[in-house]
Amino acid sequence: MKSLQERDQLVNWHPYTQMKTAAAPIAIVKGQGVFLYDENGKRYIDAVSSWWVTLHGHAHPYIAQRVSEQLNTLEQVIFAGFTHEPAIQLAENLLKLLPSNQQKVFYTDNGSTAVEVALKMCLQYWTNQKQPKRKILAFKNAYHGDTFGAMSVSGRSVWTHPFEELLFDVVFIDLPNADNLAALKSQIDEIATEVCCFIYEPLVQGSAGMLMYDAESLSTLMNYCRSHKIWLIQDEVFTGFGRTGKLFATDHLTAVPDLMCFSKGLTGGTLPMGITTCTAPIYNAFYSDNQHQALFHGHSFTANPLACTAALASLELLLLASTQQNIGRIVQKHKVFSKSISQHPKIKAIRQLGTILAMEWNTDSSSYFSSLKEKLYVYFLEKGILLRPLGNILYILPPYCIEDSELDYIYHAIEEALEEL
Ligand SMILES: *Cc1c(COP(=O)(O)O)cnc(C)c1O
Q1: Using one digit for the tens of pLDDT, what is the confidence trace for 306-337?
Q2: Is the pLDDT assigned to residue 290 strictly greater than 80?
Q3: Torsions phi, psi of 42, nearest 5?
Q4: What's the pLDDT score for residue 371?
Q5: With a 6 A CB cut-off, is 350 part of the ligand 1 pocket?
Q6: Mutate which of 205, 210, 263 to test ligand 1's pocket (most atoms within 8 Å of Cβ)?
Q7: Of 94, 128, 180, 282, most Cβ neighbours within 10 A?
Q8: Residues labelled catalytic
Q9: Are residues 232 and 295 in the same domain?
């Protein structure tokens, strides 16, 4: 009989993967809590939350129970002309946790589409106002997704290269800090009247390698854009739902965004879903007797009741005192560990925000394809740990249910790797 691995290779094409040179994928047959189990019975600590989505561990019984009840009640319904309780309840519950200017929820089914919707809302806002503005601001090295609009507002890289001439123009600026704010402001001054919106990953650029920047500079930049009527799109697809140590990255800021994008941890990592929220002024620019001013965007599975229910259950779990304590515990443990290795000669830099800990290794090549990446990946897999470095940047992003002993096991494996590799 063929293994799952062999059958997979005959029919599946995997994301971001050179199928010719990549090792055969590991076939997972079961997930439970922080662990993944492969077809040979080997288990792995999921130290990257399965691409940053899993919050409370795999196959969480409470989420499973809620989704299963919903599955027997209403699995899917068209969301134009119809609505349902899970979509209403989730919008109510989520908005309560966001800055009070966030007033409306628009559902999609992943992070890239949540970004597409935010961009379309901003672009069409100005069209509906009969004052079309088309320039968009974003940060260098940004990552906002893989669809064309989301790619366009992402930094140009190996990922966007094959499509580059088809991407729309975006003005890319440096991450702000106390020293360059004045220069950034004057850069914005020059184009401000044509700029429709500014999209940014708050405080952490995840895919770029967990690059971090400070809340105060970002708040200053946000307020400056606001003074120029530039809409602020805060992409919290990665930073949302506790990753930064607070519920949302926005809770670190003194400025508030106009639109927010969510996905990844939204359903606790159970089902795909995206959400874009916006303020009343944005919503009101589409609210009209004129049919042409409606927002023409939707997906077949918009506001899928199962995904909404998973999100409701995940949010309940996230707000539990015990989960918040777990987050605090991870933050503290990361702190102690990063201090202990910060002087190691192989460590070039170490960065932490909340539960996100990133270690940049000294290497000749910092490229995404660096050979160190592959070495580290295999090294940890052998020890039963799933860590998937971004180039020479190794990061830990655990589900919140991870135990101290499991964190210690990961830390210890990293210390060994620092000696052995
Ligand atoms: C992952 C990510 C996206 C894209 O989400 P997908 O669900 O993978 O399409 C967008 N923005 C940020 C900040 C992300 O980290």
Answers
A1: 999 999 999 999 999 999 999 999 999 999 99
A2: yes
A3: -75, 140
A4: 84
A5: no
A6: 263
A7: 282
A8: 16, 143, 235, 264
A9: yes
